[in-house]
Design brief:
Elements lengths: L1 H29 L3 E5 L5 E6 L5 E8 L13 H8 L11 H8 L3 E6 L4 E8 L3 H13 L5 H20 L2 H13 L13 H6 L2 H11 L5 E7 L3 H12 L22 E8 L4 E7 L8 H12 L5 H9 L3 E8 L8 E8 L5 H17 L4 H19 L2 H14 L4 H11 L3 H11 L5 E9 L13
Parallel strand pairs: 2-6, 7-11
Antiparallel strand pairs: 1-2, 3-5, 3-6, 4-5, 8-10, 8-11, 9-10
Helix pairs in contact: 1-13, 2-5, 2-8, 4-9, 10-16, 11-12, 12-16
């Protein structure tokens, strides 16, 4: 027994040693030196050397998303993202993707509220292709009218399948439109269907010429390269592109919410669903770190309070969780959700969600739980930093929304400093009824097909 106890202690000590070695190595990787250069035309370029594998990630982030769209023109940013793969005067339709694939790379793009971003992952010796292809379509995009019409139909079908025909996504969209009455976060990234029907090729081209300018873009390159060698290539590829007019940020500010808002959605669905959002500050406020830890305590995985209480203990929900997004240009929502078990009313799940929020407001988190959550957040951060792509995503997003790339490096230090008092104060300040919007999905039975939809015998 004594020998076994000694062996167990030795194993524990070795495990702790491995953990701290991992943390030290990962912390160093997460804080790899970032070289930031602003070209003469205003383009920002961020370089992170990482030689552990002969690969490289190239990303280019444009400061344009649904936040920059006006009434009746929603969906332009996302539709333009599709058109960016339709060819330039130099590289024809489909040639961009074929070139990347032929050289063993992968590529894609995504649009958000605050940005549109494009990326390629290559073997390190193929980075020049990204410079050539992305600098070309930054300035030479062709938007063929017939291609535009075809792609607009593709986006409309995407909206039907992902939102209109998905009752849960439809509810989330409706809740955001309820929570934001003035700010353009009111609008869905994919756009409203009526707007998509009426968007024109010229409007898309004007959107491109306004926002796809070097002084409105950030390049992030992470991987196996030498900064001194790569910088002149980036300058040669991009600095010759003329800068655009200064960007005027005239997005209307959302007025303070003056009471709880509720919305009901009746759609064909098997189960009800509840979605709750609270207005909370973004990265610019010091409370963002307490809110991030609070979100993890309530909703980070199956060990979180919401999942443990609603799914395992009370057994009133099939799923429960939520999220808080700090890296947004303007303040967004801290949200919770729950899917009631069959036979359970939504108000039962809503009451349980509110009870867990109230518990954080009245009872301080224990040091044990706080340490556990911080360790979990730290591990997630380290594993994310271990990927070139994820590291570039962290940096690109932070730089684009205005937090700055150094926000990523200081994030863990600020998270580690969060106290139980900070969490309780944040819950009391922000998770309150006057800042809350509630969406309820009321399932409707399937409708029989109309005679025109029935198949011929």
């Amino acid at each position: 027994m004594i020998r076994e106890a000694k062996i167990n202690r030795l194993i524990l000590l070795l495990s702790l040693l491995v953990f701290y070695l991992f943390v030290g190595t990962a912390d160093a990787a997460a804080k790899s030196k970032v070289n930031r250069v602003v070209l003469k035309n205003g383009l920002t370029a961020l370089f992170v050397e990482e030689s552990k594998a002969p690969v490289v990630t190239f990303q280019i982030w444009y400061k344009v998303g649904s936040r920059n769209e006006i009434t009746s023109k929603t969906g332009l940013s996302h539709l333009l993202e599709h058109m960016m793969f339709k060819g330039t005067a130099i590289h024809g339709k489909g040639e961009f993707s074929r070139t990347v694939a032929k050289n063993g790379g992968t590529e894609n793009a995504f649009t958000g509220n605050d940005y549109t971003a494009y990326f390629e992952n290559f073997s390190a010796d193929r980075i020049d292709l990204s410079l050539e292809l992305e600098s070309d379509r930054m300035q030479n995009l062709l938007i063929d009218p017939s291609e535009f019409s075809l792609e607009r139909e593709v986006v409309k079908e995407e909206r039907r399948s992902r939102t209109d025909d998905d009752p849960y996504s439809f509810l989330v969209e409706t809740l955001h439109a309820t929570a934001f009455m003035v700010h353009p976060y009111h609008n869905p990234i994919i756009g409203w269907m009526d707007d998509l029907n009426n968007l024109t090729r010229d409007e898309a081209y004007q959107h491109y010429k306004k926002y796809y300018q070097p002084n409105n873009a950030t390049i992030v390159i992470v991987g196996d390269f030498q900064f001194e060698t790569l910088l002149p290539k980036v300058v040669a590829a991009f600095e010759k592109i003329p800068n655009g007019a200064p960007m005027a940020d005239r997005v209307p500010k959302e007025p303070p919410q003056a009471g709880e808002r509720r919305t009901i959605v009746k759609k064909e669905a098997q189960l009800p669903f509840i979605f709750i959002g609270f207005h909370t500050p973004n990265f610019s406020h010091p409370d963002t770190y307490a809110l991030a830890v609070l979100a993890s305590i309530l909703s980070s995985g199956k060990s979180s309070r919401l999942y443990q209480e609603l799914v395992y203990k009370q057994q009133i929900a099939l799923d429960a969780g939520g999220s808080y997004e700090d890296l947004t240009t303007d303040s967004d929502l801290f949200y919770f959700y729950g899917t009631p078990r069959p036979g359970i009313e939504t108000h039962v799940v809503e009451t349980a969600l509110n009870a867990e929020i109230a518990r954080l407001q009245t009872e301080k988190v224990t040091e044990r739980e706080l340490t556990k959550i911080k360790n979990k957040m730290e591990a997630s951060y380290f594993f994310g930093a271990d990927s070139n792509f994820a590291r570039a995503m962290q940096i690109g997003k932070a730089e684009t929304v205005g937090a700055g790339y150094d926000y990523v490096d200081s994030y863990l230090k600020k998270i580690r400093a969060v106290t139980a008092d900070d969490i309780q104060r944040a819950a009391q300040t922000y998770l309150i009824a006057d800042q809350k919007s509630v969406g309820i999905l009321v399932p409707q039975p399937a409708q029989p097909p109309s005679p025109s939809q029935e198949k011929e015998p």
